Amino acid sequence: GAVVSQHPSWVICKSGTSVKIECRSLDFQATTMFWYRQFPKQSLMLMATSNEGSKATYEQGVEKDKFLINHASLTLSTLTVTSAHPEDSSFYICSARDHSPTGRLNEQFFGPGTRLTVL
Amino acid sequence: GENVEQHPSTLSVQEGDSAVIKCTYSDSASNYFPWYKQELGKRPQLIIDIRSNVGEKKDQRIAVTLNKTAKHFSLHITETQPEDSAVYFCASSTGTASKLTFGTGTRLQVTL
Q1: Mind listing the pLDDT tens digit for each residue in B15-30?
Q2: Which of A16, A91, B32, B103 is buried deepest, with most CB atoms within 10 A?
């Protein structure tokens, strides 16, 4: 149980284009999902908290107009990198919390990540 | 906000030896402390976690200790094996926001 998928697993795009990444909780409902960015040989940095049915909460220094987050259902959150540039190239990872009575408090389940390369 | 420091950044041990990784946190309200193992290009995998009402937790070769007074927690791996080689991250979160703050990571190399 508690499986989170991401799509695509990797994407290469030209500078200036927009890229959408999907994060799905496959066997549980997630009212809260998180988006992280990880540069090579660095730690995971939280970008934003995605809340189902409401606006995402962005961390300091993360441009909300550049990284659009939509969490329209209890199993799907999307991150759109708008007008991507080479400096946006990174490993993007989502995670989700299981809010059900059987879910462990605080535990997050991570997706497999999406490697974005902007040329 | 929360700040998590992790040491060492790299650790090399011989197979069969023990490995210890230490983290300190700044927010006294933090109450959940997971440890993750991440292999290159893969997702972080939860290997053990501890909550603030417990001082120690063990799962086979892996153990975690928590000192709330000093605000630090440690990961202990005994009888290390080559497949333990990976990057390990500690993290912390508080009960309400649940967002994780990660440490900087420790690259563990287990040599034969």
Answers
A1: 999 999 999 999 999 9
A2: B103
